[in-house]
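Lab notebook: predicted structure, single chain.

Context: the supervisor wants predicted structures on file for every construct in the current expression panel, including those that have not yet been purified. This is the next one on the list. No modifications to the sequence; it matches the entry in the shared construct table.
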Amino acid sequence: MEKREFPATEVRLLASAKSAGLEMKAFGNTEKVQETTQDSFNDLDFAIFSAGSVQSIEFAELARSQGCVVIDNSSAFRMDPKVPLVIPEINEEILENHNGIVANPNCSTAITLMGLYPLHRRFQLKRFFASTYQAVSGAGKTGLDILEAELRTSLGLPLEQNSGVQSPFPHPIAHNLIPHIDSFREDGYTKEEMKMKNETKKILSLPSLQVSCTCVRVPVIRSHSISINAEFENGVNIPDAKEAIESFSGTKLMDSPTENLYPTPIQLSEQEACAVGRLRIDQGFSSGLSLWVVGDQLWKGAALNAIQIAESMIHRNCLPFTY
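Prediction complete. Output recorded below exactly as produced.
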């Protein structure tokens, strides 16, 4: 928010009682973290929720009733038909019909659509298959700690003190891949994989879109990568596909295979834009493209997108709202 010069005149840092009293720098001031209570949202324009679905369900309606717009990073409201699910570069116009709560999409969905949407605009998306390669930081700080501890153990290095935390992963993650993120459903898909399908259909307003996804946790610190095979209604070609991506705000083309130029997680970490590479005609579809999309799941996949939603609402004069 500071980097983007967000026009805030007052900032409140809210958390659980356990974190209350901690001090953090915010907008040039030292702010104390406050416990979230019923009175926390008085006289605020926005509250960005990033504490999980349970907390969002507990406090979002309370904040909304006080005239505070909730921008929620959890999955609590994403599929609520009354709640806009927004990636500003794609569908910010629906913010004008919000009712006080706006949902941020899942990290992999946001990054995928930053690469896929400009192609949809040009060729009209029919269906796609996606495989995600999701960094351990998507599981929180514990995910980072576990990867480091397992790597140190595998190399015979001493562990840091207090490293005995419980792993959020069902198998070792160091030197490994785990095709399992979130809980399994009866049909064999995980909830994470269904987020890609259902959220994409809502964001693009394509209820009949066919989507199949496999989500994989990989031993990468930061930034998610997605391999996509997409079929389109109209005939595709590479020059038009490249032009569509290059002209789309928030996405850059990194695609020169002979020079080993394509996006990687290290390159895209702490970057606002997502990137597309390995763009080619798909050999499994009559009118298809294969592509590789990478983006920082902590920025465009979460925090940055939430801030952009607030910026869009200010720009489009979406405040105040009628409760």
